[in-house]
Amino acid sequence: MPEAQTMSQRADELEHRQMQELGDRLVTKSLLFLLADGERSVTFGQGRLLMGEDPRLPPMPKEPKLLDFFKYRFAIGSQQHLLQSANLAQKNGLPEKLVLACLLHDIAVTGFIRSDHGYWGAQLLEPYVDEEVSWAIRYHQALRFYPDESVGYPYPDNYVRMFGADYKPDAYIQRDYAYARQHKWYMSARMICVNDLYSFDPNVVVHWDQFEDIIGRHFKQPKEGLGNDNTPSSHMWRTIIRPCNAL
Ligand SMILES: [Fe+2]
Ligand SMILES: [Fe+2]
Fold first, then answer.
1. What would the pLDDT profile of 11-63 be if each residue is shown by its tens digit?
2. CA 144 to centroid of ligand 1, rounded, Å
């Protein structure tokens, strides 16, 4: 069983590397991280568990702001998607509030959890943005699957490739689409879809500086720092800062 040996050797190496980097502390992974690999077993090692700063990740400022999360935590590769979507929204003359919605619409994909990303993203941001912004982010998830020719939004070609030609959205997506379709903010969520750039130009690089003013005006940055404040999503920001806290 050479392959099994290789896998177990690899696991040993990984464990050894983790132990070295973490001193005597053991990492306990949340079940969710294991489920992502098709695993259901949570093991508890003997020893001191990692709590507090994770030495494998870059340290964060004591009072972290929104952009610190993009700088020190969120996936680097997918940030251009957000920046270029917001850039397009700005070119299309959308109000600042909706430029912000485009800038943050996939924050959950970039920085937290992909599954149900519109809902997670909206919940994460809700205490800090105008209600219309988080509403639009929540419902862009459902609207993405439904064309609206009145604004030139077809069913995305790449969804056929990504999900198959016969893919049918789940019942809750169908329900939320029907709800959003008749809502007063329907067009705000739709504008996220219209400006949602999939095949963005790799030669154009958009920088965060371009949106610093808009973030300053439309994102209510808590003075204590995200995670240190006391809102319904503070714990989510803390989990992103320290994803492997044992409890
Ligand atoms: Fe999205
Ligand atoms: Fe997107």
1. 666 555 555 557 778 888 899 999 999 998 877 667 888 999 998 999 999 99
2. 7
Distance 116 CA to ligand 1 centre (A): 9
Q: What share of the chain is helix, strand, coil (3-state, %, to 5)?
A: 55, 0, 45
Q: How many residues does the chain have?
A: 247
Beta bridge partners, 48, equal 25
Q: What residue spans define the domains of the chain?
A: 2-49, 66-241
- The model's pTM: 0.90
Spell out which residues have Cβ within 5 A of ligand 1, the ion: 106
SS3 call for 141: helix
Is residue 80 within 8 A of residue 241, CB to CB? The reply is no
Residue 197 has a CB neighbour count (10 Å cut-off) of 18
**CATH number, domain 66-241, options 1.10.20, 1.10.3210, 3.30.230, 3.90.79:** 1.10.3210
Burial classification of residue 105, based on how many CB atoms lie within 10 Å of its CB (0-12 exposed, 13-18 middle, 19 or more buried) = buried
How do residues 21-30 score in pLDDT, each as one tens digit? 577 788 888 9
110's tokens: 């970039």
Least distant ligand from the CA of 119? 1
Q: For residue 82, which of 192, 169, 239 has the smallest C-alpha distance?
A: 192
Structure tokens at 114: 């992909």
